[in-house]
Amino acid sequence: MTAGDERLLGDWIRIETEYLESCGLPLWLHALPHDGGLVLLDSGTSITPETSVRGRLAEARRRLEDIDLVVNSHAHPDHMGGNAALAAVTNAAFAAPAAEAEWLEDNETVISELWEANPDAYRLTPGERSELVGLFGDRVRIDRLLRDGDHLELSSGMLRVITTSGHSPGHIAVHDQDRKLLFTFDDVQAAGVPIAGTPHKLAPLYHDVRRYRSGLRRLHDVEFELLVPSHGDPLDAEGGQERIRESLAFVDLAEEFVHDYMQRHREITLRDLAEALGTQLGPYDGVNLQTVSIARAHLDDLTRRGVVTTRWRLADS
Ligand SMILES: [Zn+2]
User: Fold this and answer.
1) Which of 37, 38, 49, 124 is a plausible cystine mate for 128, CB 3.0–4.6 Å?
2) Over the stretch 9-25, which tens digit does the pLDDT of each residue have?
3) 162 pairs with which residues across the strands?
4) At what angle do helices 289-304 and 209-220 cross, to 10 degrees?
5) Rounded-to-integer distance, Cα 35 and Cα 283, Å
6) At 247, which helix (H) or strand (E)?
7) Do 58 and 66 contact (CB within 8 A), yes or no?
8) How many A from CA of 244 to the centre of ligand 1?
9) Ion ligand 1 neighbours, Cβ < 5 Å
10) How far is residue 191's CA from residue 198's CA, in Å, rounded to a whole number?
11) Pairing of strands 201-202, 226-229
12) For the segment 187-199, what is each residue's pLDDT rounded down to a tens digit?
């Protein structure tokens, strides 16, 4: 991050987390002081508040206990897993997308509806499942349900909620209109994020092709000087717009890939398509939540457009 970018962040406190070390991806949280205390955008995983947030706030002469509002961008464990740890030491209110409240409040629901949505193509091993539950931590009740166009009024500025509904069904971006900062969290994914210490990238994740595209186009129309993603460095206006265009270009490429794959194979399984996307479209490590989800998203889209049809048969025993 350049000194100029740092200046544009103003009084936002940028918090580096342990996630890079534990899971191979950089993860940044952001806190903004205001009269009532501190607003924290996203809470990391179950261990992030005590492992990473407390120390960084102390450097900025603030306390974890000062946090009075937590805004979760979406219901993935690296963005809301820290809620219970924060609820244990603060009186913070929790605000999150209305469309994902159930996922935010119930680990079993989010795991079964997200990770286990396509069991014929992908299943968590018992070890992966318990690791995931550990990242999620205990759940807390969401106090404020956020919808598109909502404003969070603070003494230090007005934050606008933009529902992008791309990377996850209710995903929101937060626009700091005064400082012209656009917090996009996980929604602007380009062609994926490199996973440290491996030759792989984490593939983009989305469930509905049309919604993902339209959310990205909305972000493209927002006036910002800095685009701030969760898993990487902030980008200036030009770089941010470019990253949004790269994200849209990836969807076009994936669409073309799926269409070609269907033409070559005539009949396919979701798992085979995910495997192909995960090895040929990019170094995405084969079959995983991301590749199965985008394979499914494009097949659903082609089905709704009448380009492909589905068939069922008994599984091989
Ligand atoms: Zn996410």
Assistant:
1) 124
2) 999 999 999 999 999 99
3) 173
4) 100
5) 46
6) helix 237-265
7) no
8) 16
9) 76, 186
10) 16
11) unpaired
12) 999 999 999 999 9
Provide mean pLDDT across the span 153-162: 95
What are the structure tokens assigned to 186, written together?
């996980």
- The contacts of residue 108 (CB under 8 Å, 6+ apart) are none
Q: How many residues does this entry show for the chain?
A: 317
- Residue 263 CA to ligand 1 center (angstroms) comes to 32
Please give, one letter per residue, the 3-state secondary structure of 253-281.
Answer: HHHHHHHHHHHHHCCCCHHHHHHHHHHHH
Rounded Cα gap, residues 44 and 170, in angstroms: 18
- Measured in degrees and rounded to the nearest 5, phi and psi for residue 158 equal -110, 130
User: Can you tell me the distance from the alpha carbon of 179 to that of 159, in angstroms, rounded to the nearest whole number?
Assistant: 10
Cα(225) to centroid(ligand 1), Å: 23
- Distances 132 to 78, 81, 83, 211 between C-alpha atoms, Å: 10, 10, 15, 27
In CATH terms, the fold of domain 3-244 is Metallo-beta-lactamase; Chain A (3.60.15)
For residue 209, give the nearest of 107, 120, 295 by alpha carbon. 295
pLDDT tens digits for range 286-315: 999 999 999 999 999 999 999 999 998 888
| Residue 29, strand partner residues | 15
Distance 202 CA to ligand 1 centre (A): 11
